[in-house]
């Protein structure tokens, strides 16, 4: 093996900017798939057995917390939260349970009940709308909201339920309103607060300004309260915004498998974990990302786009001659990691996948040769030329059967 290092082959512009990023020493991740993710109007609700199986995959991925649902939505949801929390407790999982609730005692009572049944604390994520537009539409006043917060947070704390206080639509709320709502929740006993980009309105710059403002506000209060970030992807800025929040004060971020959720969805968990790994901010074993996302796709009947980053069928697959030639040459060296970086920004091996080369109309002989090697087939140069000619005539990538048919026509004994 050579002495080559990745720094010898890639100039990393992402590390060159002089900035004031201050990532926390420990980053936590909350999985919202089973709560916010299931609020998508296009998904199918998984049954409880599948939800429990997903919990195990979340735990294997090193995810810190899982929101198990909204028990105030009805007895079925309350019972499922209790079942999943009990599984976490009895199996000694590392993942910790959460449940969402409005600022109503009636929503928090089922969390208390489920927690007592499971024998484990369930963090209550108590939320209320905070932006001027929500206040106007709902006819709320800040004083009314503060009263609801005092009652609901106080009820949870009195029943030994840890509280994450969540302001919906934080990224469009007035600074003075946020201060008033957070101060009320903290004084009532909330241990953490959550900044929400509920409609995906924020940009990374706005997130940094907001998170810095809230961090400085907490410092002025002299309280040790953690900051969560919950982002949606209406503008496609979910990952960038999550990283911006972590770099300026947040230490826990929320995401959903495949980015499922209302409208355009939430921050995508698979992308979040991979980016945190590549930045050296977590060291989780994330080899089961594909299994995790495929299970969510199957159980919620969410289609997997072919070009989905990280987990889509084409994420590590090429049929283009120039690309395939470079990948094939790299994979033939003794430095096998080279094949994972020459035409890929994400190492496939990190998530238990591998580079794939197909044969299609834009392919060259490198594609054919490598494809044959991958399938343990050895044929003549004439046969490889015939396969390439068939690919050039095609309007799509050739299937296994189509390539084998070309080989059989020329060299029956080779198959």
Number of E-state strands = 10
**If helices are DSSP runs of H or I spanning 4 or more residues, what is the number of helices?**
16
In CATH, the topology of the largest domain is named: TIM Barrel
What about the largest sheet? 8 strands, parallel, barrel
**Overall pLDDT metric:** 91
Order of helices and strands: HEHEHEHEHHEHEHEHEHHEHHEHHH
Oligomer: single chain
Q: Strands of the biggest beta sheet: in what spatial order?
A: 1-2-3-4-5-6-7-8
**Whole-Å distance between the termini?**
34 Å
Radius of gyration: 25 Å
CATH superfamily of the largest domain: Aldolase class I
Judged by helices, strands and strand pairing, the structural class is: alpha/beta
Outline type: elongated
As a percent range, the share of helical residues equals 40-55%
What's the number of structural domains? 2
The percent range for strand residues is: 5-15%
- CATH top level class name of the largest domain: Alpha Beta
Give the low-pLDDT segments. Answer: none
Query: Which architecture of the largest domain does the CATH hierarchy give at level 2?
Result: Alpha-Beta Barrel
